[in-house]
Amino acid sequence: QKRLAEVWMDEYKEIVYMRHPNLIHLDAGDVDERKRLRESLQCHNFDWFMKNVIPDKLVPTVKTKASGGLMAGDPSDPKGCVDTFSRESGQARIYASCHLMETQNFQLTEHDEIRIRIDICLEANFADNRISVAQCNGSANQRWSHKGPKEHIQPLEKSELCVSINSPSGSDDQLLVLTGCNSEDVRQLWSFISYQSG
């Protein structure tokens, strides 16, 4: 996977590394010969491929405001990480342990979406104030405001609400919900692993 990304995917390789952070530090070996072959064959770049060969597919963004695990509380002592548990729909949950593998690897995109994969987003349901994972569709209830480490995450559509952790009585589950914002409530303060400057 890493050799493929390094030789053929140009700036899109960053998407591969967002999805599979374990590849970042792997050695791809010497790919210079493969890059020379690509150049000698005068192959189009990967952006051309995305726009001309599969234009009906969602073109993923490589521009993110923040990425990595989405942690509740102080990053040095997180209360847990948002985890999809490999589901593509349903209630978003908190996992007590932050393993930061694929099911916890989120990105805050330039379009204010919080994506777990190219096609799965966090979505606010204002009818019951729950937060779910769902297919990305560009709707207003999939757009979020987040200013930086240890800050609130708020739906752009209803900025008086904040993402919070709720532990229903009699359950070990910790769910993501929307509640009134409270800057003193550590269950409403969120951090990604990394933030892009600018």
Topology, element by element:
Blueprint (H helix, E strand, L loop, with lengths): L1 H7 L4 H7 L12 H9 L5 H7 L11 E9 L7 E4 L6 E2 L1 E3 L10 E4 L4 E2 L4 E6 L4 E6 L8 E3 L6 E3 L5 E6 L8 E6 L9 E6 L3
Antiparallel strand pairs: 1-2, 1-5, 1-13, 2-4, 3-8, 5-6, 7-8, 9-10, 11-12
Q: How would you describe the overall organization of this protein?
A:
By secondary structure, the chain is α+β, with helices and mostly antiparallel strands. Helices cover 15% and strands 30% of the residues. The chain has 4 helices and 13 strands. The strands form 4 sheets. Strands 1, 2, 4, 5, 6 and 13 form a 6-stranded antiparallel β-sheet that branches. Strands 3-8-7 form a 3-stranded antiparallel β-sheet, with no helix packed on it. Strand 7 and strand 8 form a beta hairpin. The longest helix is centred in the first third of the chain and has 9 residues. The chain is elongated and about 60 Å long. The chain starts with a helix and ends with a strand.
What portion of residues belong to β-strands?
Answer: 25-35%
Using only CA atoms, what is the Rg? 19 Å
N- to C-terminal distance: 30 Å
Secondary-structure element pattern, one letter each: HHHHEEEEEEEEEEEEE
Alpha-beta classification: alpha+beta
Low-confidence stretches: none
Helix content: 10-25%
Number of strands: 13
- Total helices: the number is 4
Query: How confident is the prediction overall: mean pLDDT?
Result: 86
Morphology = elongated
Described by strand count, sense and barrel closure, the largest sheet is: 6 strands, antiparallel
